[in-house]
Amino acid sequence: MIKQPRSLFLDLERIAASQPDKVALLDINGRKITYRHLLSNIECAHAWLNKMGLQRGDSLIALLPNALETAILFLASLRAGLVYAPLPCTATLPEIKKWKKLTGANLCLLAKPVSNSLQAQIKEVDWRVEIISIGGESLWPENENVSIETGGALVMASSGSTGEPKAMLLSGDRLWSSAKAFLSYHNLTEGNIRFWNYLPMSYLGGLFNLTLIPLAAGGSAFIDDAFNGKTFLGFWSTAERFEINSLWLVPSILRGLLTLSNRIGQNRSYPKVQYCFLGTAPILLEEKQRFAQVFGIQPLENFGLSETTFVSSERAGDLAMRSQNSVGALMPDVDLQLRSTDKGEEPKEIWVKTPYCMLGYLNERGISSPPLDDQGFMPTGDFGQVVDGQLHITGRKRDIIKKGGVLILLREVEQIVSTYPKVIEVAAVRVEHAFYGESFYLYVSLDKTVYGEVEYLKELSAWLHEQLVKDKWPEKILLCQSFPKTSTGKVQKHLLKERSAVNV
Question: pTM for the full model?
Fold first, then answer.
């Protein structure tokens, strides 16, 4: 039996009634919105969207920066029963037109930093375009009351780490229900948490993890610019200034903070940060342990898909069970099956059944149902195993190859290479092979202090030959100065093949 989702706005009204004057959202310019004002602003924005000609079931596209206005428009769209389809402010016109075709949107919302030239091009498209003012005192004009609609949804692009991104249709109420389940699992129900929202609000991390989850806890979200190089420099001072006690990290941010700490030779605890969650991409156990040692903050890794939200998560009380590749225990309401994919051989693919699954993928023919089997399970594309109640991720389906009949887990190779001195990042990428059928190239980026890079890679190659049996050697080791990544730090391996590199 499918579990009925909670109602986002009935819950939010209850939270606001119990703490009307508590701050819900704030920004770097000193603007603060209490729960009472959050509800009124959402309702006013809902009425404004109606005046733009949108009714329940319609879609709108938004190219908006991280801002209070963006959070309110997102929530107002869900309250109005609309389909909210965000894009980065840096999206190209072909990408915007493709999104319009998929969603059928007749309204596009824009704000700086969308360039003037792109704004002019967007206005030439056959739809209504509205420019949103960011940073003002009065967010939305007063409007008559409008009742809550149902069916509000979000269209979000998948990460695109292994291929062309897909357009996912996600239910607002299911996302909210997943947020409530995650908070309950971690016993975060007292309402005093404050997250720092620095993940792009054109992606799920900024809208779900760092907007809905704080509100579902009755806490608050400090909305800041999307994370960039400058954020690292003032990271901890900003966290202290805005009383951040809850962090959501992705591996690239965690590693960047460790690198900066190592360069300036400073280890310091930050006891005000009580909760720290980590997800979106694989990370080594040693990196998590090092972060805890340097900053006195224990990052709790979780695993899931955008299509399913959370599947598993580490908890503070269960860290004695942690080991390499483990991502915590299974979340409540989630069922898991490990299924063989090739004549009963290992490894086994993770299939999950969850009440928080997406509604489906959008394509030119409309909405296609999620890829569920007759039991309601969905393949994750990840291989894994359960050890002592902890889920272990052993690799991606696309990252496990057979080279001349020998099974090779590319993630295992990546983990080994990442331990070599001054290797910053590594990616093993499958390639076709005339004799073996398939093999792989190894891309690495090195610390800037490395001189004589070609010689260094030759030394790495000789060392790797000692660590792996010959059948698991890469065809080539290629130097790549920087890796193409998604906004959440996932390496886009399909783009690595197109980048220049030094052949060794």
Answer: 0.84
